[in-house]
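Hi V.,

Quick status before I head out on leave. The structure for the redesign project is tokenized and pasted below; the design run finished overnight.
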């Protein structure tokens, strides 16, 4: 088999060297010409070359094609005598020589033959033939033309070529059936070509993806014929097939008839988007007011069926919910689409899709299916459905090391507690450290990173030594749990908040554009007038958001000290206001003033949100939006400045003690905290151990992992001691999560057995 690919043979020109200074010249080309070197009298005869191109019928020619190669005949003679066994070498500028080396030996008649075939290039070419012999080298050339072959497409039936037609078996198919397409490429004599030709098969169904071929286009011929498998994949009716030879020089056609499939069932496919905004509220990120709900029509083998009419209906039309198209027609993939448009009421809705099909007994029946739930909502976060969480509340060494990272995740839902649309933006602000400015939600949540860094103190109290921030070493220290009773100085870790301005606590605020929360008493999905006039109010009025440094729940610079836990006794009003002096707010309405969002005439707040009906806007509610918000406090642990005290639990008074005494019912608590009375970071450990002799921990040495604590106050580990009589030591040690530790050692005394009352102090049960 020969293929239509160029094989190019090149050869360097051979220099002619002539002896005795005698110059030779060559003759012209052609079947009636020859080249020679004259006899110089030396007795060595000169060669003569005659070149001829012969077609398949033995006639001279100067034209070949992919189906009509030619034979190059080279005759070598000298003084009219044939020259036997002479090497003839030929090179060509176009086409392909066979053999590829371009060499042949003359026979007894002095004739050598080579074959010249068409390659990929068309046009005129030249063959150069050379012979080495006699007294030098002789060359001769002959020109020729490569043209387009006279090819046709069709198929053979009973050995007879049917031009312009495709062989199709079978020509009638069931839905999804297959047929074999046969196409032959022949020359002008109806002989299959020996070259490889490329066949392109096309039809309307192939273009539309409703049918396929194997192998895929283009298909090469083998021995002049291509066999192609055609598969109907949703196509029905007559599909006209056209086979075209590469280059478009020949074609053949045929028709395959495909029976229509009978629809068997319909199934929900998808809804994009799955949540749409109330009418008149769309246009924002992910807030469309239309959804395309798609269904797939299939037959009994689950193959898609095109062209089926699908009827659509809604499970509810409350608030003006509607369908843009009551019917649709399935496409090549069997998909039919319904377009749902939102109304004025937030609700959930399903699309009902129905088709007519054959029940197998010749009767037409209706089959239906439901879509998944489509949500119609404001699409906006409401205040009741936003929350902020931290990967850890106590930042390990946050007061000492830069770059300790905490992940903050905000979760947002709308009034109906459905996730807000993807792409909803959340903005972050922090009191201390550094936080990424924003994130956008996916499935109702997104995450940013907070990193420990300056600032770590208010600018009014740099370094925490200006008297504003309370520490466990302050002279006005007061710990209700200890009743101020200390034998170890007058200060130390305390399980209660110390009051004043808390050190090492950073408030993080997240805000988003949304609406206020309200209780929908009548369930109509909007904030109506009756709900606006309800007492007590059924909505949460939101002032502008602010970063609450002193944790008193109000914007202190404008409102004074608030009722929050950060400003309750023992914190004074003056200290509370000083601690909140640097609080900043988000000026949502850009009026350069902190806005409480109340009616100046009544002093009362009004509901703000998209769920305010159009007729109520500016009357009993407002459709203007607000900043919804959430916040939390991160504790920056100071692992450089730590302290430990031991407190004895008493029914009358808890006392701080330096020595742990053995005794039935005696319980001690080891309290640990940093200088700001903050607990260690989560996963740190606090261990209490005895000396293994005179002082042991009841039940064995303790090692307690610190939980993640949000509130201020020291962390405590309770324990009791026992021993064999005498005095010893116990050790309390904090091993921090990241690295390092802090420990203190306390005295420990155990009593002798009860019958030995001579020791001092006397064991319990001894007479005074």
């Amino acid at each position: 088999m020969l293929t239509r690919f160029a094989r190019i043979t090149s050869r360097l020109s051979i220099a002619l060297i002539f002896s005795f200074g005698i110059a030779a010249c060559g003759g012209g080309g052609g079947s009636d010409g020859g080249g020679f070197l004259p006899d110089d009298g030396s007795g060595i005869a000169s060669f003569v070359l005659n070149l001829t191109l012969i077609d398949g019928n033995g006639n001279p020619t100067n034209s070949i094609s992919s189906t009509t190669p030619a034979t190059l005949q080279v005759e070598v003679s000298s003084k009219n005598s044939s020259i036997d066994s002479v090497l003839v070498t030929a090179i060509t500028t176009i086409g392909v020589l066979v053999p590829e080396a371009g060499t042949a030996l003359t026979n007894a008649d002095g004739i050598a033959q080579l074959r010249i075939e068409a390659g990929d290039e068309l046009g005129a070419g030249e063959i150069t033939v050379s012979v080495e012999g006699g007294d030098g080298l002789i060359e001769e050339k002959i020109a020729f033309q490569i043209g387009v072959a006279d090819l046709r497409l069709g198929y053979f039936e009973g050995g007879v070529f049917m031009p312009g037609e495709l062989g199709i078996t079978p020509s009638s198919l069931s839905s999804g059936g297959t047929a074999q397409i046969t196409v032959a490429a022949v020359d002008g004599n109806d002989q299959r070509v020996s070259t490889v030709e490329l066949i392109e098969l096309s039809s309307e169904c192939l273009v539309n993806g409703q049918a396929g071929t194997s192998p895929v286009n283009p298909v090469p011929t083998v021995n002049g014929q291509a066999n192609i498998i055609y598969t109907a994949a949703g196509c029905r009716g007559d599909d006209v097939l056209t086979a075209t030879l590469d280059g478009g020089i020949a074609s053949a056609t045929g028709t395959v008839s495909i029976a229509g499939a009978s629809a068997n069932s319909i199934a929900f496919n998808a809804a994009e988007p799955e949540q749409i905004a109330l009418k008149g509220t769309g246009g924002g990120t992910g807030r469309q007011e239309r959804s395309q709900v798609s269904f797939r029509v299939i037959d009994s083998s689950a193959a898609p069926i095109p062209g089926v009419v699908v009827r659509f209906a809604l499970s509810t039309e409350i608030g003006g919910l509607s369908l843009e198209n009551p019917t649709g027609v399935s496409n090549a993939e069997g998909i039919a689409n319904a377009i749902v448009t939102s109304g004025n009421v937030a609700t959930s809705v399903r699309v009902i899709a129905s088709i007519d099909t054959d029940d197998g007994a010749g009767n037409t029946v209706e089959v239906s299916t439901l879509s998944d739930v489509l949500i119609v909502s404001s699409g906006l976060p409401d205040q009741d459905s936003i929350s902020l969480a931290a990967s850890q509340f106590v930042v390990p060494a946050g007061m000492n090391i830069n770059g300790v990272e905490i992940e903050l995740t905000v979760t947002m839902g709308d009034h109906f507690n459905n996730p807000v649309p993807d792409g909803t933006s959340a903005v972050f602000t922090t009191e201390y450290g550094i936080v990424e400015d924003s994130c956008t939600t996916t499935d109702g949540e997104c995450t940013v990173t907070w990193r420990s860094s300056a600032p770590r103190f208010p600018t009014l109290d740099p370094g925490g030594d200006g008297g504003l921030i309370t520490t466990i070493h302050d002279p006005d220290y007061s710990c209700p749990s200890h009743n101020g009773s200390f034998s170890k100085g007058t200060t130390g870790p305390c399980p209660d908040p110390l009051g004043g301005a808390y050190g090492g606590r950073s408030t993080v605020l997240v805000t988003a554009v949304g609406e206020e929360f309200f209780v929908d008493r009548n369930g109509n999905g909007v904030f109506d007038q009756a709900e606006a006039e309800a007492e007590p109010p059924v909505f949460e009025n939101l002032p502008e958001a602010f970063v609450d440094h002193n944790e008193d729940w109000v914007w202190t610079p404008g409102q004074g000290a608030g009722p929050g836990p950060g400003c309750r006794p023992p914190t004074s009003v003056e200290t509370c206001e000083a601690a909140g002096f640097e609080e900043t707010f988000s000026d949502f309405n850009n009026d350069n003033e902190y806005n409480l969002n109340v009616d100046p005439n009544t002093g009362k707040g009004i509901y703000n949100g998209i769920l305010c009906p159009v007729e109520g806007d500016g009357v009993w509610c407002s459709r203007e939006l607000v900043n919804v918000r959430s916040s939390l406090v991160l504790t920056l642990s100071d692992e450089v400045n730590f302290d430990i005290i031991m407190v004895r639990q008493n029914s009358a008074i808890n006392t701080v003690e330096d020595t742990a005494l053995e005794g039935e019912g005696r319980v001690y608590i080891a309290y640990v905290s940093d200088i700001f009375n903050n607990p260690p970071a989560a996963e740190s450990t606090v261990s209490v151990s005895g000396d293994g002799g005179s002082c042991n921990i009841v039940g064995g040495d303790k090692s307690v992992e610190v939980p993640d604590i949000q509130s201020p106050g020291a962390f405590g580990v309770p324990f009791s001691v026992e021993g064999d009589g005498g005095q010893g030591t116990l050790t309390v040690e904090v091993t921090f999560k990241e690295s390092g530790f802090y420990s203190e050692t306390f005295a420990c005394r155990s009593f002798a057995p009860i019958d030995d009352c001579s020791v001092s102090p006397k064991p319990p049960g001894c007479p005074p």
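Above is the designed sequence. Residues 1-44 have pLDDT under 50 and may be disordered.

G. will cover questions while I'm gone.

Best,
W.
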